[in-house]
């Protein structure tokens, strides 16, 4: 579990500098009242006056340099830590696979990476400056005691009061920040949901209603927001009283001592400044607020970082035709048995159709075959090697997978087909084989058309999804991946698949009898169990088999 | 910049602002009295009058108590001022996103709105306390010794002016940072939405880089900002520390002119406790919050201030569709998707539109439904241009069901009566019965059960969307591949339900079977369009022959039995082979043909 400390430690390179500067700043702050007091005394006395002026000027100069460095270092440290945390979050989500990200909504994950990571990155500087910010009040006490013990006593009472205010503040802000962030995340999720149906909404003219649905949570957000200000109001008022209270106590006691001739006017001035330092809530409240936000941010990041990366073996695949073996594979999720002791031995190079009614486990079978999820028990092997033992690189080069609803990722159409294309030749070949080239070439910028700006139908997306999976050299898993294609295109791709020049094993989840008919073998699934493995023509006599196709 | 400041000023026009300002007045008193009290008390102590000194200090406490009452009220009023602004921005972002379909709005909602909220609150508070302090200190200094004020105020104002000059330098960097932030949210959304696909492609590293680039861009923009921050600190030194040093240096001269020790100390107190913190916060706020406020708000306003096209007409006369010379292209340079289409769809017609995907079928549907504006030519729906009709009138005239069925988190019933909120139970059951969604709804748990869209398959979502469309009051139904995820039987039932529903049915066909059920068929073939019935088109349209020939309802035996495409006909007839300057497309066709020759041999 990632902790506050771990994120804070990340700023290692900067934190000593930030800490040092904060300390110098604190030291200057502490020394200055005494030096200024002495300067005033020397002015009144009319002696030694230029020496104290020079010392005061030097101290102030030092303080300015420290704060300039601090301004740069603090921001730079947060920038670097944010970037580091964001890279980690992205890596974790991406390597966690589909099962890892299942518990999170996309919009929520984006919030965690964009907003919460930035909050979390404040952990280091906030913690360090919090330490340095404690120095002035504590130092003031010591220096006050050096001037006069009674001044210190008056001051101490004030500081205790201030601490109490701060503690109460930090705790409540963390709770409220979290509630506020969660409500915000819910609004974002609802908006993301509506955006998936934007065409329906626009056509139905129900934009206003969708607005109301999403904004239904706004009063709640408003409520959480107002509470934040109320808490600030209380502590703001407390600070306004507590600050002068300490100052006045110190000044009154100091005045008595001044009359008694125990301290000078300059020392009284210094004492008043130390009293102000001790009670000065300004920086400390800000820092503690930041720590509270950083804590909430770290917590949100930690939930993502707890995703386990999918483990991969290190083996390469031996030479082979793409023989796919299921050995007593069972998949259980949330207490439901999705695949029930499936054993299959599919010879390499064949087209294998997977058919069955909805909920039969076809997609789960495809996902397990492509190692998009792992069996609960049993294992799947390709050419004799269990998929879990194969290195990720070898696995993904050998196995390609296309989906009913492909999510395309990339800056351009070309990148969505082949993210790391060395040359455009393979992209083009894949696009042609899957008839994606037909429409891509009609786009204004062809393969360089921005993916975000290219409006595409489901069938067009499917063709790009197919093209993306096409280069796999041993096994192609198509999970209903041609369902949105029009009849003509579907048929052409079907033929390309059946007559695959590369002789790959093709596992095709389908609802269409034509596809099953073209396959060499059909795996017929029902309620997670294999009913039969045979050619379509042999199974067609079976009435319940025919019912699968409606 | 003007627009953003105007928005800010507009937001201040509320009773909360007046209250905020009013409650700030008590705070001026402790600020003003601070230095005076310190000066008078010190002079009293120096004169040996203890109780008089303590009396001055008591006055300070009383003033602070008054100030605290004000401070508490001020923060409370601040919430009343800021939260409505945030609410307004959330409304704008959500409204804008729903009108533009812009997916980066999700990021805008989370990050940018919060930035504006925080910065706005910060600015209000800081400018307020800057004013309070200036008033207080000036009043105090002038009552104490105007001579001291002459030494303190000018360098203070100089530092303030310098810091304002630095502001301009920061603007571009803040903008770069925000842009990177948006880019980050957009690519992160794309990647997180596609984890399954990235895993399947083994493109994890690519995805990391895709999001990694904006992460780095953001970090470097923030580092650049850090440098400006350092410069700003320097300006602070001028305004905050120079008055102090000048006062010290002039100390002997001032004392010589009869200024008391207490007054000198009071002057120092005003600088250290009053002016310095006020300058520090106001500069920090203007430089950081101020710029972030203006730029972030600007981005929100840019994307949310869309002028919606005028839709002046309230009624259509029936739902007949007429097009003459209808032409549409997605861009000025792009090939037209529809080219001079003449079409007439009388009321009660059942029309199927067929053709290879990507040929413009959905574009035609969108044009008829008033979602797109023709590039040229005429189009009328019920005698008027559909883009002129108000959305309410459009919704009562036609219903469009796209391929991507929209199901939202809510009860099944809420989803079904989406287009007819006052539907009766009988109407709902009849629609469910007609479409054949009964089994699905029972499985979900009945009409009152809550649907989670992600738990339904694409086909199941389509079934719900079809029931919803069936319930719609609109007489013209446009199914834009709305049944593509259903099996053939479910598709037949749905289409027949709509055919018997009354009114016009336009089916953008996904399977050729849809054409067989239609009264008339429109074959779209790139720039050409042919209208006819099944028997006539089989004779006149080579593309239709091909589409139809390629369709085999339930093939009894494997591979060998497939018919060859008619000789000489391009298999899918990509539209580009009608457009001369498209060498790649022509090349593609020949490749496709070669495949078929290979297949045939």
UniProtKB/TrEMBL annotation, chain A:
- Which Gene Ontology terms of cellular component type are present? plasma membrane
Q: Where are the transmembrane segments?
A: 12-32, 52-79, 126-147, 153-170, 239-260
Supply the name of the protein: ABC transporter ATP-binding protein
| First-listed, main subcellular location of the protein, grouped into a coarse class | membrane
List each copy of the ABC transporter domain by range.
Answer: 324-550
A GO molecular function annotation here is: ABC-type oligopeptide transporter activity
Taking every annotated instance into account, which residue ranges of this chain make up the domain ABC transmembrane type-1?
A: 22-293
Key words of the record: ATP-binding, Membrane, Nucleotide-binding, Transmembrane, Transmembrane helix
**Where is the protein localized?**
Cell membrane
**Any Pfam family:** ABC_membrane
Q: How does it sit in the membrane?
A: Multi-pass membrane protein
- PANTHER family (alphabetical): ATP-BINDING CASSETTE SUB-FAMILY B MEMBER 10, MITOCHONDRIAL, ATP-DEPENDENT PERMEASE MDL1, MITOCHONDRIAL
UniProtKB/TrEMBL annotation, chain B:
How does the entry describe its membrane topology?
Multi-pass membrane protein
Q: Where in the cell is it found?
A: Cell membrane
Q: Does the keyword Protein biosynthesis apply?
A: no
Which SMART domains has this protein been placed in? Answer: AAA
- Residue ranges of the ABC transporter domain? 321-551
A GO cellular component annotation here is: plasma membrane
Annotated region (Disordered) at 547-601
Which SUPFAM superfamilies does the entry mention?
ABC transporter transmembrane region, P-loop containing nucleoside triphosphate hydrolases
Keywords for this entry? ATP-binding, Membrane, Nucleotide-binding, Transmembrane, Transmembrane helix
Q: Does the keyword Membrane apply?
A: yes
Q: Where is this chain compositionally biased, Pro residues type?
A: 553-583
Segments traversing the membrane: 20-38, 50-71, 120-142, 148-170, 233-255
Pfam families in the cross-refs: ABC_tran
Q: Name one GO molecular function term.
A: ATP binding
InterPro entries in alphabetical order: AAA+_ATPase, ABC1_TM_dom, ABC1_TM_sf, ABC_transporter-like_ATP-bd, ABC_transporter-like_CS, P-loop_NTPase, Type_1_exporter
Domain ABC transmembrane type-1, residue spans: 31-277
UniProt superkingdom: Bacteria
Q: Which PANTHER family match?
A: ATP-BINDING CASSETTE SUB-FAMILY B, ATP-BINDING CASSETTE SUB-FAMILY B MEMBER 6
Q: What is this protein called?
A: ABC transporter ATP-binding protein
| Naturally occurring in which organism (per UniProt) | Kribbella sandramycini
Q: What does the organism's lineage look like at the top? A: Bacteria, Bacillati, Actinomycetota, Actinomycetes, Propionibacteriales
